[in-house]
Amino acid sequence: MVFVVVRGKGFTIQCVVTTEGEGVSRQMVKFVAGLNRESIVDAIPVVSVPDPKNPIKGTTQQVELHVRKLYCVSKAMPTLPINVEDASRSDAEIEAALQRGVQLPRVNQDTRLNFRVIDIRTRANQGIFRIQSQVGTIFRQFLLSEDFDEIPTPKLTPGSSEGGSAVFKLDYKGQPACLAQSPQLYKQMAICGEKDRVFVIGPVFRAEDSYTHRHLCEFTGLDVEMEIKKHYSEVMDIVDRLFVTIFDVLNGRCQKELEAIGSQYPFKPLKYKPKTLRLTFEEGVQMLKDAGVEVDPLGDLSTEAERKLGQLVLGKYDTEFYILHRYPLAARPFYTMPCYDNALYSNSFDVFIRGEEIISGGQRIHEPELLIERCQACGVDVNTISYYIDSFK
Amino acid sequence: MVFVVVRGKGFTIQCVVTTEGEGVSRQMVKFVAGLNRESIVDAIPVVSVPDPKNPIKGTTQQVELHVRKLYCVSKAMPTLPINVEDASRSDAEIEAALQRGVQLPRVNQDTRLNFRVIDIRTRANQGIFRIQSQVGTIFRQFLLSEDFDEIPTPKLTPGSSEGGSAVFKLDYKGQPACLAQSPQLYKQMAICGEKDRVFVIGPVFRAEDSYTHRHLCEFTGLDVEMEIKKHYSEVMDIVDRLFVTIFDVLNGRCQKELEAIGSQYPFKPLKYKPKTLRLTFEEGVQMLKDAGVEVDPLGDLSTEAERKLGQLVLGKYDTEFYILHRYPLAARPFYTMPCYDNALYSNSFDVFIRGEEIISGGQRIHEPELLIERCQACGVDVNTISYYIDSFK
Question: CATH homologous superfamily of domain B2-74?
Answer without folding.
Answer: Nucleic acid-binding proteins (2.40.50.140)
